[in-house]
Amino acid sequence: MRIHITSVFVDDQEKAERFYTDVLGFVKKHDVPLGTDRWLTMVSPEDPEGTELLLEPSRHPVVQAYQTGLAKDGIPAVSFAVDDVRAEFDRLRGLGVRFTQDPLEMGPSTTAVLDDTCGNLIQIVHVK
After folding, report:
1. Cβ contact 53:8 at 8 Å
2. Fewest CB atoms within 10 A around its CB: which of 34, 64, 105, 115?
3. Segment holding 20, helix H or strand E
4. How many other β-carbons are positioned within 10 Å of the β-carbon of residue 28?
5. Which pLDDT value is given to residue 3?
6. The pLDDT value given to residue 20
7. Contact predicate 102/112, CB 8 Å
8. CA-CA distance, 116 to 20, in Å (whole number)?
9. What pLDDT was estimated at residue 7?
């Protein structure tokens, strides 16, 4: 068994698509119209056949409470691996990304947390 698709709820799929591709550097894999929504998945350009990230609409009332609660408590909705947290932090800050946690070393891990502008906190991490 392996992870095939995981979701992150977004308040606007168009805005999320731009952020996750233009800013974070993911590549669109699937974009299938589903009424007013889309089956919109992203993959890493380094692993185009790997795990997909579904940018899922957040209109369901339970999702609103979930997202709000996580963000209020500073809990990331998802974590992405990077080769160098500090370099990625600098690159993303240069693009105007807002971080809620600057790079922090915790044992063998370095993490930082950013706001994806779509309702989520996202952690970037590197493990030595």
Report:
1. yes
2. 34
3. none
4. 13
5. 92
6. 98
7. yes
8. 8
9. 95
Contacts of residue 27, Cβ cutoff 8 Å, sequence gap at least 6: 21, 42, 43, 44, 45, 48
Strand partners, 106: 109
- The Cβ-side half-sphere exposure at 35, using a 13 Å CA radius, reads 1
Distance CA 104, CA 41 (A): 30
Q: Which two tokens stand for residue 113?
A: 């947390």
Give the H/E segment covering residue 120. none
User: Average pLDDT by consecutive 10-residue portion of the chain (128 residues)?
Assistant: 95 97 98 96 96 95 93 96 98 98 97 96 96
> Residues 33, 15, 46, 110: is their CA dihedral positive or negative?
negative
pTM higher than 0.85: yes
- Rounded to 5°, angle at Cα 126 from 40 and 75: 60
> Radius of gyration (Cα) for the chain, nearest Å?
15
28 forms beta bridges with 42
pLDDT of residue 74: 95
